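Two entries, shown back to back:
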Amino acid sequence: MLRYLQVGFNPLNGGLPDSIGNLSSTIENFHIEDAHINGPIPRGLLNMSGLIALSLGENNLAGSIPSDVVKLEQLQGLYVNNNKLQGHIPEAVCHLSNLVQLSLGGNELFGLIPECLGNLSMLQAIILSSNKFSSKIPLSMWKMSSLLYLIMSQNSIEGEVPQDIGGLKAIVGLDLSGSIPLSFANLISLEYLDLSLNVLSEDVIPSGGVFANSTLQSFIGNKGLCGMHIMEIPACAITTTGQQSKSKKLVLKIVIPVVAASFLIFLFAIVWIMKRRKKANSKDVEKVPEIRTYQLVSYHEIQQATNNFDGSNLIGVGGSGSVYKGTLSSGTVVAIKVLDLQNEEVCKRFDTECEVMRNVRHRNLIPVITTCSSEYIRAFVLQYMPSGSLERWLYIEDCHLNLLQRVTIILDVAQAIEYLHHGHDTPIVHCDLKPANVLLDEEMVAHVGDFGISKILAASKSMAHTETLGTLGYIAPEYGLEGRVSSSGDVYSYGIMMIEVLTKRRPTDDEIFNENLGLRQWIRQSFPKTIMEVVDVNFIHEEEHFNSKSEICIGSMMELALDCTKEMPESRITMRDVVKRLDKIKNTYLGT
């Protein structure tokens, strides 16, 4: 029943035997990236008929891509980048109808790029860079309206980029060789464009569309370019004969190579620094699959999965939309979060959440399987959490959490927020931490979700401003009064939620709290002498082994919550310190 086999980033130093295909037909993800593997791709590997993702990149694999790859009918991600593979791309690849990502860059492949690749309607990323392809880019590729990334640089591609390139309506990243047609302005989704290290000449860099914010770095290595809007690029001085002046050509011959060399050195330095930083960060972040791919879903399939949004499948309703339980055609049970398209602010939140989820992976964050965006719907397809929300466990009559469960859930949430704050070069602030946004799986492991109003802080800044508020009662004072967003605001919300989990009291409980007395002040008045009088009585009375250690544990938790919710942001502790203290509390007083 093995489903995931991940042995990458180990010095295995050998070849893969054909017998590896005997492991299991149920394996969905086989990850053996950067493991010093040599020799050919074993044909036995292609007997793993259930594979969804096959990652063999960053090794020393030689030989060709076997045509037997057609056996992997379920394959959605094929990653064999940065090896020593030779030969052609077999047309068998075109029969992998579920393929979403194809990464063959950094090999020694040559010949024609198959025309039939354009028929793979599910493809979102094609990476063929740093090979020896010499054909034209197939015309069929310019009709791939769902393609997000097309990376073809450092080949010997022939011909010009056709006007049909405007058909790539969803394209986000484009890196290739060729002249620059005006239809590039139609690429409305494009986020970056790299035309460097080619031999483009006698081209004027357009000033509109996707070129409005471009810089010299995108055009390094193309000596004959000119344009008005980029400071470092010479203006297009045309003589009466229609040719550039000799003086301009002389400048181009001298200046551009020097600037190009300088920028390349700078670029290599940045890449080296980022790799070092990534390795350092990876020691503290739980290892998860680097890339997991899933089949895209359409509006029609979401309708079918939810029985046309039948009320019996409705899990919950919030301010931004509704959540349904659904079953995809593959049989996978999922939660489908359907946003309210009538609310313009909600549509902006969809874009924000997509941006955040594109950058995060952690066991305590709710996994987003895929999204659906059309004129009819904006929806997230999420991993289904059968145990429901933390809010439900706190306030539904037949739900009860013991002390160990509460501490474990609080620790799970802390680890998720620590990852958001410290697991990236650019910290992510959730901005709306509360029990309703914490969901529990079948093993009661907590997962944080709903990133609709979260903020990605710039690398050079530790704070941002916003007009979008979170939920009353959980908002940090500086967040509500001044719109100041920082990681310490999440720490405050987390501390309030921790108190709520231990007391079973909402911060907006009108029976107890008012403008003169809030949840934190209530706890502060009771701490430490009478703290047991404000704790949720249910789990104390039902706890079989409640003793003095349990009381000390609760007191330590409340002290930590008060440290999280201090009035001044700079006085609060970090989530990294929260996780360390919670680990110690759990191990010391609960013995796990």
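entry 2 starts here
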Amino acid sequence: MPFRLGLAVALVFLLGLVGVPAMSAGPDGSAAPAVPVASVLPTAAGDDPHLWLEDVLGEPALDWVRERNAESQAVLTAPPLFGELKAQMLEVLNDRQRIPSVRRIGDQLYNFWQDADHQRGLWRRTTLDEYRRAEPRWETVLDLDALGAAEGENWVWKGASCLPPTGGDAAWTRCLLHLSRGGADAVVLREFDLQQRAFVPGGFSLPEAKSDVAWLSRDELLVGTDFGPGSLTDSGYPRVIRRWRRGSPLAEAPVVFEAQRSDVSASAWVDHTPGHLRVGLSRSIDFYRSEDFLWQDEAAARPAGRLQHLDKPADASLSFHDDWVLMSLRSALPAPDAAGGSHPAGSLLVARAADLLAGRPRWQALFTPTATRSLDGWTWTRTRLLLTVLDNVATQVEELRWEPPAAGAPPTEGRWARQPLALPGPGTLSLAALHDPHRRDDPLAEHYLISYTDFLTPDSLMLGRTGATVRELLKQRARHFDAAGMRVEQRFATSRDGTRVPYFVVWPAGAQADGRNPTLLYGYGGFEVSMQPWYSAAFGKAWYQRGGVLVVANIRGGGEFGPAWHQAAVKAHKQRSYDDFIAVAEDLVRSGVTEPKRLGIMGGSNGGLLVGAAVTQRPDLFGAVVCQVPLLDMRRYHLLLAGASWMAEYGNPDLPQEWDWIRRYSPYQQLRPGVAYPRLLVTTSTRDDRVHPGHARKMVARLRELGAPVLYYENIEGGHGGAADNAQRAHLMALEYSYLWMQLGGGR
């Protein structure tokens, strides 16, 4: 990723808070040439005059950052609008009535919370009965502000890995807390006692690294971390997994598994479900392919060669639940039937876990995609499987249950029955089961949380139960803007190759298609990540209520229509993502939604690459560009931080044939003298250890070298999310909206 999950998390933050010359349709519907592809400057490190800016903490580079920050803030904070925007953003972010997201650990619900009084945040817990109340009583488990002050660290919360009850324990007692300095992906791990609400003296701890850990037992961990030279992959993630026993030196812990240096990572997981103890080890060959093993006898540290290999396609993923195993397909799999058919890519299959381990799985299809329907995700209760499905980018939910065969009938006569659930829509639904598989007397075994939102409907959180049609409303987010008179449309643009590309248009009250609306086009288009409707109080206050139109493009490279939609725009075909995005922009102009000088684009991470490619190919089409934590120098991306892990998405620029694909869209290489670029706003974070800040720095330096207008802001903290606390987020968001109104709305 951008690791896939990490990218999704970053997107939640960004959204909820806020070759040969190509021919494409111009703004007036006529044929207009794209900017010709450049073939010079720079193609290798030795040709790059701005390479020194890749020295993240080098004083000359930081001096350059400080100068650019001062210049940009002087421009963007000058309008009176900035102060108003910042206050509104801070109010939204610190709203005490927003829904606390929860995770069940034992009998309690845990939440991480930030507000004006707790800028770094509280890890806290409550019961379900209390959570039902409008004002629950919360028990603080860890105060991150107090911890940081006491230790002189700028800690940022990155989660907890907790040990289920084992070996006779009746309660969850131990966790490994993931603490980041300034928001980086690399974390410090420290053992924490949930009952005492304190760190364990002399407990397990790991220094700052991109570690992978799993509890084997109360006194043993499976650990992947930076053990020294040769222990990391080219992507900077763990290559070696060791079995670490409490009280013994980590350096002496036996190696149980190794990946190859060219792999993305090695990882481990443990399923502690009673009667189904499983230990899994995996090597991620690339971002989409893996080789998986089960270590059935966890009592002895077997050499890796004796692990049981799990037979699956390399690009399929497996997950276990009690007696069952699910397999999600990214490519077609032949079906063992007389007709010689196959399960298409995007299918979800199920088999008995024992049959898979015996080498004779009988896979059954639980979900088969169609032209408009794709699988978005799933969650298990004790006895039911809940599927979330996208149909033309609107979520639906199905509940599946296993109906065993009649007594004496062959096992093949059992079937999975399904029931569509009547839930709010069209919009975005997400589910999370509350089932604790470690308790056979679990009163919440069949309960799950359901959240719903769309562009105009604040988030709601409901409690559901399998087999029931009535759901309990637990929480409802407050309305932060007046949606009266607003409307949402789903439209389709035609891309360069004839593909229909859907997009959403969110109209403010009273807006008409007069060609003059300030319009912001958002996109991502990578790593099979779907852009689904979301409610944004920040957009409401800063954009909609001031007359701005929001457009969200569902371009290829994303996951809105399953693996095929993603795979249509990877490697040699990545340009299709940019063709789709440009086609949506042209459609907005052609249909009278806006005009180029009032059309802005925004994207982060891979989306930053998207808007960078779009503006270098069609600078005439946009009046503003917000480019957040971006990839931009695609000649060197694989050499910077986690970049090598993304070559399955973009290709390897060290291979001449693949560099020939990449150079045609790489924004840094495609900047050319004599082109009238709109003024860009490029943002990043010094502490982003996923997408290197050198991408953003060098792009801005090159624009300045060309005499092009550009603004730059680099937050010292924040990691890949761009900010470490609500005050930093509010400031960054206010800068972005101030810029957008300055560029697109006459500074109103």
